[in-house]
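Handoff note, outgoing to incoming analyst
You'll be picking up this chain. Sequence as last confirmed:
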Amino acid sequence: MNRKKQEQSKPSGLEVVVNHTGDYKKDKLNFDHALRDFKKKIKKSGLMNDLRNREAYMSPSAYKRWRKNEAVKRKKRDEKKQDWSRGQSDG
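Most recent structure output, in case you need it:
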């Protein structure tokens, strides 16, 4: 029983399936669609941002400064979204 559950569990990484039909044009469309899906999954998971952040060493003080700046940007963006949604509902 346990072996079946392990085999059925989803993989821990990102996975995109490309169907092979034998027709060049259909296969190219399938690949393009799968590549688009893969790019969306990578972006949504934040993997590229994580890799980019790990490219170089960041001192603890620089990391704190960076996090603070990111929080300020996020707060401004959220306030802008709220202001925009209020303007739409006033209508």
